Amino acid sequence: MSDRRTRIALAGVIGLVLLAQVLLYPGIDTLVAALGATTDLQASMWFLAAEFGAFVVFAVIWGVVSDATGRRAPYIVVGALGGAAGYAALFFVPSSAPSFLTVLGLRVVQGAMTIGAFSLAMTMLMDLEGGHGRNMGAAGIAIGSGTALGAPIGGQLYEVDPLAPVAAASGLLVVAAALAWMVPDRAPAGDRRLAAALDSVTARPQLLVPFAFGFIDRYTAGFFALVGTLYFREAFELSPGATGLVLAAFFAPFALFQYPFGVLSDRIGRTVPIVAGSAVYGLVVIGVGAAPRIELVALGMVAVGVVGALMAPATMALVTDLAPPDERGAAMGGFNVFGSVGFLAGVLVGGTVADRFDFFTAFLVTGGIEIGVAALTIPFFLRLERQRSGVSA
Questions:
Q1: What global pTM score does this model have?
Q2: How far apart are CA 304 and CA 251, in angstroms?
Q3: Contact (Cβ atoms closer than 8 angstroms) between residue 244 and residue 155
Q4: Residues 122, 52, 19, CA angle at the centre, nearest 5°?
């Protein structure tokens, strides 16, 4: 299989995994109620947190095992099929689960398997030739496309049945497993101990720079998945279908611009896309929370999507720049750990602030964290760029 077809197939796996995930977001309060929850915000928060908690724990484990064994594709297949089984189990929960804690336990298992398919598909793109920005741009457009389609499609599925998105997610991951089965494994030969593969990442503290930006990006994604969804529904009285369309206002430009922005970062470097994006991202998020009309909210979401598309592929490409070929599985696993922690923080912090105060305060805190973390991280990023170019800091 050519690099181009491999890139398309792997992007398909990534897109399907994200599509399955985001299908559940537009009516998350409706879903948790169907699964036996007795609250909306708190139950939705913990339902999302259970999956991303598993992402945090297992992302590096999948990557380290992949690096140590020199295999990636079989683990993607196993992860996708395991995730499909997890979604299928959730579909049958209402007739069999004794409590919502059982639902959360199944969600953890589903997340532990799904992150293997997602993270290692991204790692296989890192293994390809053709430019790191181009390859990560392909990953980015897959992520954006999956999320862009997931929001409106999920909203419409909720109009049919609260459990319909869960059933659809299970089927999508089966298709992802089939795609991964056809992809040739190009991972560097691995015969190292697992501990040595893990140490290879911890010995490269410069990876903390893209990891930190991955945290920031996914923090806002987690915030919008929970707080943004509930805010749009309550403040503007939107149905799950209409909420999905508002979320798509972010995800559509986020998908469309990832690939060209990734190619751009190959030409001009990583610093400008990341720094320029971070400078305005937090402000735009706050603007969405302050917008008085749904039309202005939608325009703000478009702006968030464009800025996010500028940052995301450059950030992932920087991971590839810094990690040697035989350490990329663990490095991308680390990146996804930080991203998953960010998503988890966006869910928990955003949900807690919205619950104790109000929605606008939650938007303000989220935008402030975005700006603050970026301000703290950018000097280190710029110093890294000077070191890599041979200029003393």
A1: 0.70
A2: 9
A3: yes
A4: 55
Residue 8 makes CB contacts below 8 A (sequence gap 6+) with: 138
Phi, psi of 24 (to 5 degrees): -80, -15
Model pLDDT for residues 28-80, shown as the tens digit of each residue: 888 888 888 776 677 887 888 888 788 878 877 887 788 778 788 889 999 99
Residue 164 and residue 222 in contact, taking contact as beta carbons nearer than 8 Å:
no
- pLDDT 10s digits, 192-230: 444 544 555 556 677 777 888 888 788 887 788 778 888
Rounded CA-CA distance 77/83 in Å is 10
Q: And the tokens for 382?
A: 């710029």
d(CA 63, CA 23): 26
Helix (H) or strand (E) segment spanning residue 5: helix 3-22
**Which two structure tokens, joined as six digits, stand for 379?**
């000097």
Lowest mean pLDDT among 65-69, 140-144, 281-285, 366-370: 140-144
Amino acid letter, 123: T
Judged by DSSP in three states, 254 sits in: helix
Judge whether 304 and 288 are in contact, CB under 8 Å.
yes
Tell me phi and psi for residue 180, to 5 degrees: -65, -30
